[in-house]
Amino acid sequence: MKIFLLILLVQTLVVLLTLSHLDAAVEYGNQHRPKKTYIIHMDKSNKPAVFADHVNWYESSLKSVSESAKMLYTYNNVLHGFSTRITEDEAHLLKNQPGVLSVIPETREELHTTRTPDFFGLEKSYSLLPASDKVSDIVIGVLDTGVWPEIESYNDKGLGPVPRSWKGKCESGKNFNSSSCNRKLIGARFFSKGYEEESGKIDEKVESKSPIDDNGHGTHTSTTAAGSSVSKASFLGFASGKARGMAPTARVASYKVCWLGGCFGSDIIAAVDAAIEDGVHIISKSFGGSYPGRYHSDTTAIAAFAATARGILVSASGGNNGPSTTTVTNIAPWMTTVGAGTIDRDFPAYVKLGNGKTYKGVSLYKGKQLSDKVLVPIIHGGSASNDTDEGNFCVPGSLIPEKVNGKIVICIQGRTGKVQAGLVVKDAGGVGMVYTREHQSTGEELSAAPYLLPAAAVSLEKGTEIRTYVDSVPNPTATIIQGTTVLGVQPSPIVASFSSRGPNLRTRRILKPDIIAPGVNILAGWTGAVGPSGLARDKRRVSFNIISGTSMSCPHVSGIAALLKAAHPKWSPAAIRSALMTTAYSTYKNGKTIEDVVTASAATPFDFGAGHVDPVAALDPGLVYDTTVEDYKDFLCALHYTPEQIKTVTNTNFTCNASKVYNVEDLNYPSFAIPLLAEIDDFGAVTNVTRTVTYTRTLTNVGTPATYRASVSKVDVVKILVKPKSLSFKKAYEKKSYTVTFIANNMEWGSERFGRLEWSDGKHIVGSPIAFTWT
């Protein structure tokens, strides 16, 4: 018996030791498997009573799958849950736990990188704008690279106390103290945990772990939206005059979420979570991903929904992946998506050749000029390199100094940025650069750059002529002449080549972008941390810089939205977006459609949405298409989202009514996108053609009592029927509904058609673009 017990004891010890080793092996294996950051959305209503609070529940849930994992953030407003870094296996285990709604992998987004008040006509319309004290109650939360508080654009002269509703704060860190804020810049915070988990601990020799802006992008966007008025502003003498943001007396709150390695979803949600708690009224977001995911897995869409549900308008850049189609991003219908156009200002520079011809380009060079009378040799970069291809693109180290010294070099766009290419030429002893294209992909639009030597960027057509001249004579010569700032350039606006285009890749029946705003060669505030080119070797420091991108167009709309919010504090985000869209213009004063720089012909609603924003008209739109949170939930039902997916987006318990028919067409949106679909059978025959579609819309009167009548433009292959054809409003905020039926009578597969629906009372025009696609 004793021997049996001894054997049993030994066997038990062996089993325990084996299990111990197995546990250690599993833990070791988990530690050495690749880890990722995940956002864990918990169902708050399912918290077990045994836990004192939700954070205890979150911690227990996480510990059940990983002893070593820690929570990066806990979220309370955008969603109920947390973010953490765990293995894929651990994420799968966590997803299957009770109370876990969704486990969303971390996403990475990138930045979408003053004349505009005059261009909008705001300087002449002060009497129509809301009083400055009302605007000063509005807080614009800018999610970006931070803020540089020392520039004059953040001066708080004339501003009263910080609004009582404000609950935010100024966080301290490297080069930034809480005292850096004032009555203008009332909040500054930074969010880096997700970024550091992905990229490693921040090297503070390279970037600051604080709200300070090491990049310049965040300072530029926030001052575009709400920069204080600054007299005698300019960039190195260019674009001189008074600079101010769209809403110069609005307050600014900066949320730094973008770093050298990008902008990460866990940080973005934490920032929006804080912005909601702090009390912002507008959120401006000038970055995005390259491919829009489904709304329940899109962290930006989820965060924007939470903000929208609390009455906060979210303005977002549409992306810089144009002119390719279906590239627009930030496309959730509860966000206002902004594309980019030009303004009527230019910064010319001229390339004068030895044959007497002169070609216009653009440049922001400020320094010692070349003689306009004494010409110097001009060469191809490839002819001054051991590698012709690299030399043509002016790749760093590719040019031979003996062949470049004292010459102007032609560099091709593609592998080296404009200012960087100029530095390559300068380092090799060149005295000037002509920067041009090799292929036509982005039209003739040119964005100016702050070169460090005499330079001019020219179009493909002009660049080709210059290159032909260089090849055709034995000793070609040239000079570069810097011009002055030119105003009144026409036509303007023109849709920027880089501005991302529709159709909407995720939801074809929602037209995106919504509108366009100025995004080319925009003057606004800049950081003191880097030079205007952003290159380490650029030692210049400026208070204003000129850059381009939908990043620049987005804050224009954010600031204008602040003006509308101040004038109409009860308006919802959807009402404000509607006012911006239905009063936007899509034609010039001569009646011609706004041009696309790529085609040099008429642009379409897939390029400019409803058109170019008109802030003065938007203050008095007459009617608006209002949309509630419940409407957006119905929209998700129409997309056949599951209850869990809907809750992931909305953070509320909502179940689609099984007896109700949900249609995307019925979302009360201020524009119409109609994809007419067909199926092709195995023999190539077209079947199941969608020829008739009916959309329902509801208008809300935000003006005086009036009767509005509908008119629609003719579309050659589609019949458009509006019922009823007139709507009479007896009082303010009265609602009236109508339907639009689209009947296609001649299908043209793969083609597009465009139209416009307008409601007018003789004073107001409430316009909506219509876009048809045959798919």
Automatic annotation (TrEMBL):
Residues 137-610 form the Peptidase S8/S53 domain. SUPFAM superfamilies: Protease propeptides/inhibitors, Subtilisin-like. Residues 666-771 form the Subtilisin-like protease fibronectin type-III domain. It is found in: Secreted, Extracellular space, Apoplast. The active site is at 144 (charge relay system), 217 (charge relay system), 551 (charge relay system). GO terms for cellular component: apoplast. Keywords: Apoplast, Glycoprotein, Hydrolase, Protease, Secreted, Serine protease, Signal. The keyword Iron-sulfur does not apply. Residues 393-466 form the PA domain. Residues 37-112 form the Inhibitor I9 domain. Residues 1-24 form the signal peptide. Residues 202-217 have a biased composition (Basic and acidic residues). Pfam families: fn3_6, Inhibitor_I9, PA, Peptidase_S8. Residues 202-226 are annotated as: Disordered. Required for arbuscular mycorrhiza (AM) development during AM symbiosis with AM fungi (e.g. Glomeromycota intraradices). This is Uncharacterized protein. The lineage of its organism: Eukaryota, Viridiplantae, Streptophyta, Embryophyta, Tracheophyta.
